[in-house]
Design goal:
By secondary structure, this protein is mainly alpha-helical. It has helices spanning 8-25, 31-47, 57-65, 72-91, 118-132, 139-154, 158-162, 192-202, 222-235, 245-258, 263-270, 275-278, 286-296, and strands spanning 175-179, 185-189, 214-215, 218-219.
C-alpha cells in the first residue's frame, strides 16, 4: 500500500509534523488552523492505534462513524484535515493511494477560493519586469519570471510546476502534457510569453539538467517557491499573505472565467476530475451579473412600455 514503511505512532507523529510544516510554509496556514489540524490528526492517530498514515478506506469510514455526535462544522473540519493529510502523503510519494474519499462530507458550504484582482497581478508582473531590466539579468530573476508566468498563465499546481522536467516546455509547442492527481493526464496551454520566459531561464541551465527548476540534486521545493512569491509580493506592494502558488492558480481560473472561458474547458485545464470542483471558480461580482443580464437576456434591449 505504501512506498515507504509507515509503522507505529512515532511514524504518525513524524509525518504529522512534516505535514504541518508544509501547511505553514506553502499554504500559509494561520497558527489557529495549524493547532486545529494537529489536534484532529493526533486524535485520529490515537483512535487508529498510531496507524493513521497506514489507514485504508474502511478504517477511515469507521473513524468517521465515531464523529456522529459532533456538529457538522466539526466533522467538516476533521474530514478536511485528514483529507489534506492523505493528499500530502500521496504528493510526497509516501502512499500510492488516497483513502480520503471515505471520510464523511457533512455538506457544509464551501468558501470561495482566495484570488487576486487584476491590479494586484499587474503589480506582481511590474515588479518582475523591473528586476529584468538589470544588465546583465540575474538568473534568479529569469527563474522567477518563468515560475510566475506558468503559475498564473497556465494554472499549474505548485507540485506540478516544481517537478517539470527540463524539456517539458518546448519552444515550438504551445502546450504541455501533465500527469496530475490520480495519474490523470491533461493538456495545458502555454502562452507565447510563458514559453519565452521559460526559454530565457532554461538558457542559463546546464543542458543535462533533469529538472526545469533544479535545486541542488533535486528540484525546487514547494516551500521555496512559496517563499519566492512572498518576497515578490512584498516588493510589488501586495500583501504577502494574499499571495501563494494556489492563489495564482485561483486567479488564473477566475480571470479566465471573467473573460468568458467555458467551464468545461477550464475543468480540463485545471485537471479537476469533477466539474463540481471547478464550479467554485464561478464567483463573480454582482455588477458583472447585472451587466450580463442586461446585455445577454432577450428582453435586455427592449424598452419598458
Amino acid at each position: 500500500m505504501t512506498e515507504h514503511a509507515l509503522n507505529g505512532a512515532g511514524e504518525d507523529r513524524a509525518l504529522i509534523g512534516r505535514f504541518l510544516e508544509m501547511m505553514a510554509a506553502q499554504a500559509g496556514a494561520a497558527r489557529n488552523t495549524l493547532a486545529a489540524y494537529e489536534s484532529d490528526l493526533r486524535l485520529a492517530s490515537e483512535a487508529l492505534a498510531g496507524k493513521l498514515a497506514e489507514a485504508d478506506a474502511a478504517a477511515l469510514a469507521r473513524l468517521g462513524e465515531g464523529w456522529s455526535g459532533l456538529s457538522r462544522a466539526s466533522i467538516a473540519r476533521k474530514s478536511a484535515a485528514l483529507r489534506r493529510f492523505f493528499a500530502f502523503l500521496v504528493e510526497e510519494e509516501l502512499r500510492s493511494d488516497d483513502p480520503g474519499a471515505a471520510l464523511p462530507r457533512p455538506g457544509t458550504a464551501r468558501g470561495l477560493p482566495k484570488s487576486l484582482d487584476h491590479g494586484a497581478v499587474d503589480r506582481l508582473f511590474a515588479a518582475i519586469a523591473k528586476r529584468l531590466e538589470r544588465v546583465p539579468p540575474d538568473p534568479r530573476d529569469l527563474r522567477l519570471a518563468a515560475l510566475v508566468e506558468l503559475l498564473y498563465g497556465s494554472g499549474l499546481r505548485a507540485s506540478e510546476l516544481v517537478t517539470l522536467p527540463f524539456a517539458a516546455v518546448a519552444p515550438d509547442r504551445p502546450y504541455l502534457i501533465l500527469k496530475g492527481k490520480g495519474g490523470r493526464e491533461r493538456l495545458v496551454p502555454i502562452s507565447d510569453r510563458a514559453r519565452a520566459a521559460v526559454a530565457a531561464w532554461r538558457a542559463t541551465l546546464p543542458p543535462r539538467s533533469a529538472w526545469l527548476f533544479p535545486s541542488g540534486a533535486r528540484h525546487l521545493s514547494r516551500i521555496r517557491l512559496y517563499q519566492l512569491l512572498k518576497e515578490l509580493a512584498a516588493e510589488a506592494d501586495v500583501p504577502p499573505e494574499r499571495v501563494s502558488p494556489h492563489v495564482l492558480r485561483h486567479a488564473f481560473a477566475t480571470h479566465l472565467l471573467e473573460g468568458g472561458a467555458d467551464l468545461r474547458a477550464l475543468q480540463l485545464m485545471l485537471g479537476h476530475a469533477d466539474i463540481a470542483t471547478t464550479e467554485i471558480y464561478t464567483h463573480v461580482d454582482s455588477r458583472r451579473l447585472v451587466d450580463l443580464v442586461n446585455s445577454r437576456h432577450p428582453l435586455g434591449d427592449r424598452a419598458i412600455r
